[in-house]
Amino acid sequence: EEVSLPDLDLLHDPEDELLCTNLMDLVQATLGRAPLGTKRCSRLLMPAQLLAQVRTELLRLACSEPCGLRGALLDLCVEHGKACHDVGHIAVDPTVVPTFQLTLVLRLDSRLWPKIQGLFTSGPAFTPLKLSTGFRVIKKKLYSSEQLLIEEC
User: Fold this and answer.
1) Does the reported pTM lie above 0.70?
2) Where residue 44 falls among pLDDT bands split at 50, 70, 90?
3) Most buried of the four, 7, 124, 132, 135, by CB within 10 Å?
4) Can you give the residue ranges of every domain in the chain?
């Protein structure tokens, strides 16, 4: 029986899988305490579909790197209208010299509910804001002068 390259899953790295799971937990924690410049405290919620898409994209972008996902620096940004808020910076493995930088640009859900939900709460309570399933990832190699790679999902 013949086996094709995709069947062998040669690019699958179990260490990167575990690192990515931990990274996504850290991303969610960072988003959970992200200041967006509003008077109210906000908590950004990542839908499960977005979480899965981002995870897949980060693993795909890391597979061609010398240290895999361990060599990544991740910058988190959230677009809100025309503004882009910087909400966090994560070194995936602080013991490894970074070889590439990923900028993950997430978007607030533009549907009506996030815009009006503040009307139903009083006081400075946390207001959960749901993120859209669309996102953009910008990859910059830190050891090369190659152009930026921008992935829109």
Assistant:
1) yes
2) confident
3) 135
4) 13-110+129-152
